[in-house]
Amino acid sequence: MRLVNSSYEWVEQELTFQPEVHGWQAAVRAALLEANVTPWNGFTVEHVTGTKIGATTFDASGRRHSAADLLAFARPGRLHVAVRAAVTRVIINPIDPAARRGRSRPAVAAVGVVYQDRLFQLHHALLRPGGEVILSAGTLGSPQLLLLSGVGPANDLTSLGIPVSVDAPDVGKHMFDNPRNGISIIPSVPIDHSLIQVVGIPSANGTASYLEAASYIVPVSPMLRPAGPFISPTSPLYVTMATIMEKVPGPLSEGSLWLSSPNPVETPSVRFNYFSRPEDLAQCVVGVRRVAQVLQSRTMDIFRSSVGSASQGRRGHARRDFRIVGATLPLDWSTNNTSVADFCRRTVATLWHYHGGCVVGRVVDKDFRVMGTQSLRVVDGSTFSVTPGTNPQATVMMMGRYVHGAEDDRGAAQQEASEHIIVQRIGGVKPSSSACELIQHTKHFSDILWSVGVHGILMLLHPVHN
Among residues 174, 353, 355, 420, which one is catalytic? Predict the structure, then answer.
């Protein structure tokens, strides 16, 4: 617990800032409280019941900070970074039986990776004795790389002509994505553009959907506007939209990822099976109703537009309502579970918080080592069976710090002489009594609101210490 919390705090100290909340976000804050998402917790990185302001990775000048900033703490002379280097597979070789020292030890070990440069030339990066390959390619990338490397369901790999190194039936299984549903409006008054800053957490134990909001500019199709003497008929009209959304925690519905071909540059296939579990659909129904309650608050009245003709307005008060973009809530949203459930199914979208595919206890052990292999780990969101907090970014970065610190505790002297290859390609539990259980249950879930990613990076890393 101490190492988990100190790792969170280090990430928060180096990468996060308190945002200035005004305009749309301030209105959402007031509306959440009016809708009884209480108490008001102010600015905090703790995952607690109520309404709060979360940390942001944008500083006061608007500069975005990411996990790449943490490279400043590495020793430059011991770190080699290859950009535009797409890893195509991990090199896995058999271990000499005489060196296995017992029948229970794995029969194969990772010895390096094959990667492709921007000119599509292939290269090998090989480990020194005692080193490791660490996959941090995200929920879609890490299972894909294991499958391409021969670690996965044997029958599936054989059918694609991929030599089987380890028959691991759970690689690519137990894939999850948190369903997102919401309402978007064109506000009647000018508003600022904002990322998610204010969060409503009706229940911190994951039994109720989280509520978030954002505002942004979107282009409207040219077909929806008339052409004029100074306006091209193909020019889009840009309008400001505001969205209030709910995100189902967990979830329980699970899907899978599989290879469409052995070609490493071909995107894998994935199906998340949203709402295949009735519990998730029931949570969405409750969450959508909370979105409606937020919109019905008096705070939101200022964003309503007049509805009806000018003559109706002269005879009395014109009716005011929201200019909704996309699907509207059913009229009987407060009483009809079936109609709200249908709305959930029709409008479900991703919040890009997918996880799973290399779940702890099924594909990796309590120390994130790929079971059945040596010198190979996965350290990213693919090891989760639930998404932590309202945004998993803080936990993913904490894991890197945690794993490094845990290895230091086991013996830095041995680590100092070894070499690690860290693969980050797209970023990104059945917990046992280990770090994963602490990650899952510690109250110190940081909510860093908005995601970052590092694409196509291969790092050759000698262990470094602060």
Answer: 353
